[in-house]
């Protein structure tokens, strides 16, 4: 093989490798940006939950002093319930703000997966809150108990909001996490060997 042919072959191999490396770099996910989006989305979610809690605390506190009957108990439960919501939102917001964005692919997927499971579990609890609220409301009417009636109505409202909140936040997280599915599709494990498909 002449020097000219060797040089040409060397240059072609280098060009192909550089093109492959550039394609790999451009197709690789920016994990810091993906985690920034994840944290930003969930921080916004905690802000929504905190806003709901604060508004319920204010309205509930005022409502307790200016109403009577079952409406007074409705406001009372709203205020009490949202002291817990405010604490959850505060701790969640603080934890997200202090979370590192420099995570590996496996850690990023784990963060999404863990939070999505929590949201689905919470959505199941929310259905239980609404069912309990309906039970209390019905029992309050039968027993002519203004307290049970007001508490039941409040639980239905709070459970309904939290169910909507958890489902929407789950769907938004799920949409973001699907950006990573394509990467895992290129990795195959047979039990004895692992193969990686390199897209061109």
UniProtKB/TrEMBL annotation:
InterPro entries: DUF6992 (IPR054261). Keywords: Membrane, Signal, Transmembrane, Transmembrane helix. Residues 1-23 form the signal peptide. The chain crosses the membrane at residues 39-59, 79-96, 118-137, 149-172. Pfam families: DUF6992 (PF22503). It comes from the Bacteria. The keyword Nucleotide-binding does not apply. Coiled coil: none annotated. This is Uncharacterized protein. It comes from Rhodohalobacter mucosus. The lineage of its organism: Bacteria, Pseudomonadati, Balneolota, Balneolia, Balneolales.
């Amino acid at each position: 093989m002449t020097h000219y042919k060797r040089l040409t072959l060397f240059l072609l191999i280098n060009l192909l490798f550089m093109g492959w490396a550039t394609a790999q770099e451009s197709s690789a996910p920016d994990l810091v940006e993906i985690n920034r989006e994840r944290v930003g989305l969930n921080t916004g979610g905690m802000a929504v939950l905190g806003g709901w809690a604060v508004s319920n605390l204010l309205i509930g506190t005022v409502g307790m002093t200016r109403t009577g009957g079952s409406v007074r108990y409705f406001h009372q439960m709203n205020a009490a319930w949202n002291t817990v919501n405010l604490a959850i939102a505060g701790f969640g917001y603080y934890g997200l703000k202090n979370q590192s964005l420099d995570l590996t692919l496996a850690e990023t997927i784990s963060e999404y997966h863990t939070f999505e499971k929590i949201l689905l579990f919470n959505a199941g609890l929310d259905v239980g809150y609404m069912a309990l609220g309906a039970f209390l409301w019905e029992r309050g009417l039968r027993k002519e108990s203004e307290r049970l009636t007001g508490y039941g109505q409040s639980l239905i409202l709070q459970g309904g909001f939290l169910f909507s909140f958890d489902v929407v936040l789950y769907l938004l997280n799920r949409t973001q996490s699907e950006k990573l599915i394509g990467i895992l599709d290129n990795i195959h494990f047979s039990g004895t060997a692992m193969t990686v498909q390199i897209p061109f």
